[in-house]
Specification:
Strand order of the largest sheet: 1-2
Distance between the termini: 117 Å
Radius of gyration: 46 Å
Order of helices and strands: HHEEHHHHHHHHHHHHH
Length: 382
């Protein structure tokens, strides 16, 4: 029985000695590497020693000399050269483990507190610098968002999140981008429509260019582009010069009488002039009605635009290819966007297009001004 107990004690002693020797070896290697500036390698050795033996203690070296084993403190000193925030964390661990109680010499204890205080102060300064740097970058990210530079703002907020994930400002900034972007697009859409209505083409183009850069696939962009082109075309039609009826003026021979004579009015000439003025007034009224119908169509009301054309005296309007072409466009749009798909509208559009070709045999619609379904209809009709 005594033999068994002695054997067990011997085995336990050997086991402890082997483990003790291993943590000492890693600890001493770590200290040597720190002395030569190999801090990352030293940190690996010290952490391995701490894994094997986390308890602070004094252990005997050769002879009568003792070494103080303060694993958390030594790791903090090593981290001071690598990551001051991690060093400060290990300082707190050293305090919690009461590692200072292992130090028996006053000089060693004073150095311990001096080093811990230095690390704590440097960490506080580092946190202050980090906050200042974060605040500066946050201000820049917010400025980018306020300037509607959404891609750059997103990158800036994501960098802030990686810089300090514990602060909420970057998360809030990223969450705000979607709503602010949508509001900005609505504002640009409104600005473009206002420019078109006011015939301020440059204003509309600038707003549409911003929309295209930010959201090239936005559903309303194609409609804005079409409205802009149609508005310009309407303005061009309105600016066409008015043709004055040609009149032949006959210069009578001057009588030989010296007395002043009043010429006799020519009833036929006066009638022609009256007729010409009436025809011009009728053409002007027709032109204004056509422009008014274009405005209704551009606002998205093809049925209302068609009604304006139907109210025109067709005996006069039927002479103009523009009248028949606009009628074709409005009929097709009413057919396409109407809920009942009335085939009679499509048939009427075909008849109007025939009249356009009769009046203008080489007629080709401008592909920039009209939707694809109108262009396809014209191509099929040919």
């Amino acid at each position: 029985m005594k033999s068994l107990i002695l054997t067990t004690l011997l085995l336990l002693t050997v086991g402890v000695t082997g483990q003790d020797r291993e943590f000492k070896s890693f600890f001493m290697n770590g200290k040597k590497m720190m002395a030569t500036g190999q801090y990352q390698q030293a940190l690996d050795e010290l952490k391995e020693a701490y894994r094997r033996e986390p308890k602070a203690q004094r252990f005997r070296m050769d002879g009568a000399f003792f070494e103080s084993y303060l694993p958390r403190y030594q790791i903090a000193l090593c981290y001071e050269q690598l990551d001051i925030m991690q060093a400060d964390e290990w300082v707190e661990r050293s305090k919690e483990a009461l590692e200072s109680e292992i130090l028996k010499k006053k000089d060693d204890l004073a150095e311990y507190h001096k080093n811990l205080e230095r690390i704590t102060n440097n960490a506080a300064a580092g946190r202050a610098n980090l906050r200042n740097a974060y605040d500066l970058k946050l201000s820049n990210a917010q400025s980018l968002l306020n300037e509607n530079k959404f891609a750059e703002a997103k990158g800036a907020f994501e960098a802030l999140l990686a810089m300090d994930g514990s602060r909420s400002e970057a998360k809030v900034g990223l969450a705000n981008i979607t709503g602010k972007r949508a509001n900005y697009l609505d504002q640009l859409d409104l600005e473009a429509n206002r420019g078109i209505m006011q015939k301020d083409w440059r204003k509309a183009e600038i707003a549409m260019a911003k929309i295209k850069q930010l959201a090239p696939n936005l559903a309303t962009l194609a409609g804005l582009q079409r409205a802009l082109l149609e508005g310009r075309e309407s303005e061009r039609l309105a600016s066409l010069p008015k043709k004055e009826p040609a009149t032949t003026v006959t210069v009578a021979e001057t009588p030989t009488k010296t007395a002043t004579q009043v010429p006799t009015p020519d009833p036929a000439l006066a009638a022609r002039r009256n007729n010409a003025r009436a025809a011009e007034a009728q053409r002007q009224a027709l032109r204004e009605t056509l422009l008014e119908s274009v405005a209704e169509y551009r606002r998205g009301y093809p049925a209302e635009a068609l009604k304006l054309l139907q109210d025109i005296d067709e005996s006069e309007a039927s002479k103009f290819a523009t009248y028949h072409w606009l009628k074709t466009v409005y009929l097709l749009s009413s057919f396409t966007y109407g809920g009942d798909q009335d085939e009679s509208l499509k048939q009427a559009a075909t008849e109007s297009l025939k009249r356009v070709v009769q009046l203008t045999p080489d007629f080709i619609p401008d592909g920039r001004l009209y939707p694809d379904f109108i262009l396809n209809f014209c191509e099929a009709a040919k």
